[in-house]
């Protein structure tokens, strides 16, 4: 053990004081001072605020004074006492004056959970992101990336003046787009508590202000998710994917990827296709599907067996 611990600067020091009892020499051994003549212990285990680090294999570490690690906001929230209901110890309801006082106390206690407004916003955003990730069936890695994106937005003062829930929803959808995960914005909007238009506006500003490299969405990447929701066969899904790839490579079709993917599913499942069901799953209108299908039928650049039937 002596090879890994630094020598104490007070180990085996010569006597520098006299014993207050008999006047004999005082000896210092580690953290203990005692008289050599009468054995009186003068000082034992003095209090110090210095933390001496152990030696490691690479060499000694310098002694330093460290501060205890502060508990996280979630830990503080779990350990603080919750102010209870509006009843006294006997179960009788309190009067209006005392109920108002408890409301104020609960409000101040909730504020005391956090050291700053930024910490409070991050805790709320983390809960909202966790809820959205679970509702959308996404992975833990996607959750961590969404939280990192929120931290970046918060560090750049993007959250100020905006709903934390809308920013959290925008971060989740932006993370899906950055990782090319086939999730529609309407799926995120249905899972969040904020209006779709507000969340969509925050997402657009988030992409612009943080200069996020959002890749373009390809219709063939949305086919598997739509096919799973409709329960179509693998052959039909493959035919729709091939048709969507042709539309993606053609400059004549500028509709959103969801509209093109839904139209390809509709063509591949004809004549038994239910455009209303497909449109609902793709979060578009059945009229859009019919319009895109008409453009595909009139185009000379698209060749697919489904168009020849």
From TrEMBL:
InterPro entries: Cyclin-like_dom, Cyclin-like_sf, TFIIB, TFIIB_cyclin. GO terms for molecular function: TBP-class protein binding; translation initiation factor activity. Gene3D superfamilies: 1.10.472.170. Residues 57-95 are annotated as: Disordered. Residues 127-208 form the Cyclin-like domain. GO terms for biological process: transcription preinitiation complex assembly. Residues 59-69 have a biased composition (Polar residues). This is Transcription initiation factor TFIIB. It comes from Halorientalis persicus.
